[in-house]
Amino acid sequence: MLVNQFLVLGAVLFSIGVYGVLARRNGVLVLMSIELILNAVNINLVALGALQGASGAVTGQVFALFVITIAAAEVGVGLAIVLLIYRNRASVDLDEVDLMKG
Amino acid sequence: MAAQNLVFAVLAVVAVLAALRVVTTRNVVHAALYLVAVLGSVGALYVLLAAEFLAAVQVLIYIGAIVVLFLFGIMLTRPTLGRESGLDNDQRWLAGITGLFLFGVLSYVLVEAFGDERLPRLEGLDREALTAERGTGAVGDAIFSTYLVPFEVVSVLLLAALVGAIVLARRE
Amino acid sequence: MESLDDSALSLAVFVPLVVAAAMLLVPRENETAHKLMALGATLATFAVGMLILARFDYGASDQLQFRVDAPWIDVINSRYLLGVDGISLPLLVLSMFVCVLVVVYSWNHFPEPHNPKAFLILILVLETGMNGTFVAQDLILFFVFFEVVLLPMYFMIGVWGGEQRQYAAIKFFLFTLFGSALMILSFLALYFSGGQTFSIQELVAVAADNIPRSTQLIIFGGLFMGFAIKVPMFPFHTWLPDAHTQAPTQGSVILAAILLKLGTYGFIRIAIPILPEAAMAWAPVIGGLAVVGIIYGALGCLAQSDMKRLIAFSSVAHMGFVMLGIATLTDFGINAAVFGMVAHGLITGMLFFVAGSVKDRFHTLELSRLGGLLLQAPRMGWILGFCAMASLGLPGLAGFWGEFPAILAAYSPAEGLSEALFRTYMVIAALGTVLAAGYLLWMLQRAAFGTPKPEFAEAPIADMHWPEYVAWVPMLVLILVLGIFPGLLFGLTDGAVGNALSSFGAGG
Amino acid sequence: MLENAWVIPTLTFVSFWLILFFGKRLPGHGAEIGIGALGLAFVLSCVAVVQWVDRPATEVVPHGTSEEVHGEEEEEHGAAGGQRGEDRQVVATAVETGGHGEETPIRSAVERNVTWFTIGDVEVTAGTAVDGLTVVMLFTVTLISLLVHVFSTNYMHGDVRFTYFFAALSLFTTGMLLLVVSSSTLQALFGWELMGLCSFMLIGHWWEKAENSNAAMKAFLTTRTGDVGLLVGIVTLFFAAGQTFDIALINERALTGAIGHTALVVGAVGLFIGVIGKSAQFPLHTWLPDAMAGPTPVSALIHAATMVVAGVYLVARLYGVFWEAFDIGAGGVNPIAVVGGITVLIAAALAFVQDDIKKVLAYSTVSQLGYMVMALGVGAWTAGIFHLFTHAFFKGLLFLGAGSVSHAVHSFDMKADMGGLRKYMPTTFVTFLIGSVALAGLFPLAGFWSKDEILVGAAENGYPVFELVGIVGAFLTAAYMTRCVYLTFFGEYRGHAHPHESPRPITIPLMVLAVFSVGAGLLNAPGVEKFFEITENRVFLLAGVEHHSFEVFPAVVSTVVVLAAIAFAYLLFFERRLPRGLTRRNALARSGYTLLTNKYYLDHLYTGVIVGSVKGAIARAAYWFNQKVIDGVVNAVGIAARRSGDWTYRHIDQAVVDGAVNGAGFGAEGFGGILRTIQTGRVQQYAALLFGAATVLALGLIIFV
To answer: Of the N and C termini of chain B, which has fewer Cβ atoms inside 10 Å?
Structure first.
């Protein structure tokens, strides 16, 4: 199997994730798209790890694990924030959240 | 050899289509379910790359915990059931263009860099050597030896995120 | 006593900072505690100064004494180098002396909004910055202290200033920052071309010969910008009148007495010894700007209606004389410059003190509304007269020894400088003294002589009270003593100046 | 006393501080400290004079022009102590000026220096150098100052700042004494400027009124303008004479040709500009008449006897420099003499048209100063100094007399408030008369001897033009003094106060000065030559300055001229005010009148043309010229400076320089505004920008790297 197969797949998922983050209005959907991006990264990690032979594979997997845990933490906090936005504005539409306007 | 490529192709197609649906569907719950599909196919890919522990964790944590969390999130923010209008904002086309442009650049770079490198063949090794070498045991050893400090840091991070989430979402 | 020797300078620099930190803990209400701590800090520093003065080996006033050499930032090979010699000692002692008097003066003279805690802390931080600049022998250390001085002065003008204090404070800050940005570039250029070191002593030894002349000129240009803005020299002076008119009295006194000297000190300590060829090339330009500064400052004074702004422009003129002294690159010139710095510090410091007291009593410094000060507050009137006389360079008072040797030096500058050009500078500078007499006496006539305007005729104007006496008498005595016995200071600075000019080998 | 002459200036300096701090509390409000100090100083000066007179004349100086004298001193071969003449052997040193070459042993100056400070390798010294000239000046200054102190105790009685006045007087005397004894030009500059300060304080004594402080400022600024030249002169001579301020050394080097000619000329011109400013010579004299705004004792002390002659003293002290620079020995014309001459004439003319008694005396002082400067200019060194010496007495007497008169009638205006005061104030009248006659230069009195010597000196040294100027000056002086005396003391009393003789503290100084005005002249009378002997010093011997003792013919000429002047002035008043002239029964006038009538037809054209024109057009023109042009120029410079100050401040400073600075500030703000539109606050747009930029960067990286 070509390593590029996995890397290109990762790139596709990554691009779709980016599209999702930029285009989606709903806070939760944006978080989901972030999950997509993180998965793309994981694929790359594991694939390149595998390419390096045994020790590389282990490193790849360990890092993928760390990414997953961080993703979990991130989703936890992200959703808490989205919940707060919802509670203050009764909607999760990100377009309205522009308090930081210059 | 061909079987692996075939399995990969199937999984890749499923993952890509599901991902596309996640970002384009009008129904938030559907998006979550499509996410499950993507995560499942990625987990399968890990198995293909001989990273079973990771596949297990992927399925267990990602699909089991994170997507469920999303569902809770969706439930709590009570969107209108069924199809929602206008989930995308006005800069959809700009996002699309950036996505494609990004994909173009990434793929060009990857093809340029890793042209035809092949993954090492695994069939030769027997099962025990494989698991001892890169299986769950090896990963476990690695975590608690060379990567002990990052492991502790990540645990602290999780704790902090936990406390943070609680504080944020607390109802006065 | 040996241990005391090498820690003396560090004490001199950091005692005010330590006490300032301690004052942070004391609550704002009990002001007397703050005043006592501030006074204690300045007096302690002054005591250290006196100790240094006592133990200073006057014979070897050209070598650096009380040397401190400790590792500081190793990666860029910048060391915690301190040392004091004939040139920096008088300025160091002057800075300590003025700070003590300023704290005494502000015993019950705190400007609006009334916050003695913050005000005194800022004064102490200022003192640390000033003392540090005068003793730093490492370019980076010098730069750090050079910038430390900026912040407290910005707040002093910005918070306690007059009506347009924001504009003046920001202008002061940006102007000096712009200068020091160019200065740090030159320091870096020196670092890289001068053999990877920031120590001034090593740079003096090594830099002169292995930096090609063209780069020397550019580096000197950067240093010139940094120091000229601080002096201030002619085209970069517009921040000074604004800063002075808006600053509170104490701020103006410190600004005039010490901060202006950082620029000229920088020229003498850093720019000239390290880059002699460039100094030689730049000297006519500096001389020209200095002389224009003298005339321009005088004309500026003639056009003023506000007393403080007039005094500010007069210090532009005075620093013109100091810079003319430096531009001649001769023994006379640099000695005159150092003496001029000390004398100007004392005299203009006094003028601002008096202006501050007049503002406290009359709440205005508009010369058209003032008048008859000699009738209402005779002692203060006479002190204003005394300082005006000292400021216009009357022989017998300190001001004269700042100007006369500079004119003397301008007659025959170092070899390589065109004598005709410097002699024209000399004549113009001599004319400057007449203009100085003109605007100062004109100010004195309008403020002190004549009868008080009806507006203040019956206002209860109190003559001087004790904080003013205690703050002013030492300065007046010093102005008189230095005027009659200039040898006190020339003896001290002469050796060090010879050393600084050794790279020229110029007689002059 | 010669060695520690520095005691005298310190004495008055200490008295200044004592009066300043303790004056108010003393019963006499500080006056007694001042008088005590000055009395002591006067006594010390007398001791110095006596010590100097019987100082053995040991130093031998070869008499001749500077070129061929090689400069280092001859060793003293045992000339007989004391007597100067008998054993002088004639050394045939050929001298172009035709002077008889001979080795004249003189008294050497007593110099005592201490190092003041060192810069580089130059050690600047300060100290005292006492020689004949110094001793004479010490004596004059302390005497006049003492008398003025006594005079002011009564004159200034009840003044609001009595103590301050005496403090300023002491400080002023310190300044003058410091100048007189100083051995270095830099130290002299100290005394010079200290006097400038005190004259500022004293002229502006009653500074409540604006015109007083204006006058004070004008005096200070004009002298200060002169001082620019002085500064340049001192600096030039410092470097030219091999980095030394020492006067004796500078003179020595100037005379032995060690200083380049151009440097010498620049130095001399610089110094002379300072002298013009200080001694109120032609272009810068406008401040002296205005300085009469100060109290009269001040005018007497400062603007008659001491400060204004400081300039003349400086020229005399540094005579070697001037002698070489302007080549005085060669006769013809030189700047000093020209300026002196012009000042003599225009000042004398101006004195005619003044109504204020002090203004008349002020212009007469300017004119007499012109005389002294002209004397020095024509090479008559001793005559100039002698005139300075005598002038101090009779001009001090005249000013104090004017003070006494004004004290009685409370005004200075001769025409309006005076006249016929001889009946009410006999002593003041007699002393004032003696003073004016001495000033005019009639036979037995001081003015005659000194003025005559100047005329002789001018004639002998090849300056005939200036001799004529001297004679015309004498004529005019006599004329306006007669007018002044006439208007003040003769005729009927026009004022409405009831004048009475001034009390004793005022009249005593008048009498003392009167005695000196009479006796001082005899000091250098033909047989005596004492003054010349005292003031003989190295400089003018080295330079080959010729001293010409008294000659009868010029003396007769000047006496006739002065008598004619008095007669004409008297005749003039008589003629115009016919009735009043007749009623005056006065012996002197009648005899002058009869003398004139029989020469009347011969001189009618002369009086009509010269006296008429001088009194009429030229005087008024001079006055107009003086007030409008010179004062105009001075004021114009002030206003121009003010206006150019305004213009430069408003346009260059605010608009251009500040504009650029503020411009930078506003520019930054504007650009900031543009950038603000990108901050929409919507997170996703930021993300879009982020990713877009990242990809563009990546692309760039790929293509170029």
So the answer is: C
